[in-house]
């Protein structure tokens, strides 16, 4: 019902995707080649452009398919880590999540990143497959996630560790799993690194924006959120600019540890403080239809939904920790949420930076909701038979 109207990052992805489709080059309109972001998101949106021209209907359809895939994986993983009723509850909560609906008409990386990460975790916890096969699949899927957002790179280590800690994998199997994952990811990313070497004159592994984001969140004037880059880096090429700002960010952290610690807390709170970006990035098309007041109400409703699910997610985490004690810390949903929160506490905060955690928060919220129903004796919470009420111990979640 709402047309796609690219603004901010979406406008940049639109530009890069169209240049990929029309010129066959990952470059800006002025002809400058780039690795500011990895190529994954722009490549995905270039696919419908190649077929339909510069039309946004195909992009919106791809977003819809990606969101549906995320929904299916939430239910699949939720069934394995919790119970089937809790997984269905999580799916329902995600299906009606306002920001995720709003991002159907936003050209962005979030939905595809969720899809790739959940696919990697689904492959990792697939007990029907040998650890070698799981490792190969996880490596390829983590590489796909990294081509969308570079913060996926450490997952090639974290996912095997999560499986080992939560499923008690033997040392030999863990080594096979982790080695296969790491090698496969490296093989998948290597061609892009070499492309960057040829195009930029430097072996940029995946992208150049990481140090910029690190600097934005860690400098003398940092607020935790986006700040403009300093004027003295304006004339630098993107590789040099990335190196210089990375060095400044590391120097700031070393010289001001207390301020860095304060910013960690501040950025964690900011990242989880609201959920309005889906309205903001659709505002150009929403405002003529629902007015300024309608946009304001949409922001309030989106954030209220987020606050409710955040509280339910925290309740689900508390239930797991109460039942499983220290072992509950290794629950994959908790680990994933903690990782994504930590990475943005160290770098930069925005409300959309909690989007990678949303599938896991939805699972925890569904678990909390079904636990509450079970406590009050509602029969829907008993649809899973013997597993319900004992699943935390019998199925590791």
Brief write-up:
The chain has about 400 residues and is an all-alpha fold. The chain is built from 17 helices and no strands. It has one domain.
Q: Characteristics of this structure?
A:
397 residues; disordered C terminus; mainly alpha
Your description of this structure?
- This protein has 397 residues and is mainly alpha-helical.
- The chain has one domain.
- Helices cover 68% and strands 0% of the residues.
- It has helices at residues 9-23, 40-52, 57-81, 84-95, 98-102, 110-124, 131-148, 155-167, 171-200, 210-217, 238-255, 257-271, 277-280, 283-324, 332-346, 358-375, 391-394.
- Mean pLDDT is 93; it is low at 385-397.
How would the blueprint of this fold be written?
Elements: H1 9-23, H2 40-52, H3 57-81, H4 84-95, H5 98-102, H6 110-124, H7 131-148, H8 155-167, H9 171-200, H10 210-217, H11 238-255, H12 257-271, H13 277-280, H14 283-324, H15 332-346, H16 358-375, H17 391-394
Uncertain stretches of 5 or more adjacent residues: 385-397
Number of helices: 17
SSE series: HHHHHHHHHHHHHHHHH
Binned, the helix content reads 55-70%
Distance between the termini: 39 Å
Tell me the overall shape. Answer: globular
Total E-strand runs: 0
Describe the oligomeric state of these chains in a short phrase: single chain
Overall pLDDT level: 93
Total individual domains? 1
Structural class determined from secondary elements:
mainly alpha
Q: Strand content of the residues, in percent?
A: under 5%
């Amino acid at each position: 019902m709402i047309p796609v109207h690219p603004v901010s990052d979406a406008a940049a992805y639109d530009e890069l995707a169209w240049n990929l489709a029309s010129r066959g080059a990952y470059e800006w309109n002025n002809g400058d080649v780039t690795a500011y972001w990895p190529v994954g998101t722009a490549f995905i949106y270039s696919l419908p452009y190649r077929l339909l021209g510069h039309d946004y209907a195909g992009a919106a359809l791809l977003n819809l398919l990606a969101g549906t895939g995320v929904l299916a994986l939430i239910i699949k993983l939720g069934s394995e880590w919790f119970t089937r009723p809790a997984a269905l509850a999580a799916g329902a909560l995600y299906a009606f999540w306002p920001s995720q609906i709003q991002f159907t008409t936003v050209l962005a990386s979030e939905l595809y990143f969720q899809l790739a990460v959940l696919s990697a975790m689904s492959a990792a916890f697939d007990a029907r497959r040998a650890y070698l096969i799981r490792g190969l699949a996880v490596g390829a899927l983590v590489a796909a996630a990294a081509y969308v957002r570079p913060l996926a790179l450490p997952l090639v280590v974290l996912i095997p560790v999560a499986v080992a800690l939560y499923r008690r994998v033997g040392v030999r199997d863990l080594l096979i799993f982790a080695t296969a994952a790491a090698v496969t990811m490296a093989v998948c990313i290597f061609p892009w690194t070499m492309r960057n070497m040829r195009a930029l004159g430097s072996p940029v592994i995946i992208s150049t924006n990481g140090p910029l984001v690190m600097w934005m969140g860690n400098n003398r004037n940092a607020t935790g959120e986006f700040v403009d880059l300093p004027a003295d880096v304006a004339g630098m090429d993107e590789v040099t600019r990335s190196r210089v700002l990375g060095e400044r960010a590391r120097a700031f952290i070393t010289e001001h540890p207390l301020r860095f610690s304060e910013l960690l807390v501040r950025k964690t709170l900011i990242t989880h403080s609201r959920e309005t970006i889906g309205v903001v990035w659709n505002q150009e098309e929403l405002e003529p239809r629902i007015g300024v007041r309608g946009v304001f109400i949409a922001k309030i409703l989106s954030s209220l939904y987020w606050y409710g699910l955040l509280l339910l997610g925290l309740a689900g985490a508390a239930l797991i920790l109460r039942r499983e004690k220290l072992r509950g810390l290794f629950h994959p949903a908790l680990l994933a949420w903690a990782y994504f929160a930590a990475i943005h506490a160290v770098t930069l905060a925005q409300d959309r930076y909690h989007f990678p955690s949303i599938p896991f928060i939805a699972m925890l919220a569904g678990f909390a909701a079904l636990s509450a129903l079970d406590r009050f004796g509602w029969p829907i919470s008993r649809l899973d038979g013997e597993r319900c009420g004992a699943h935390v111990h019998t199925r590791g979640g």
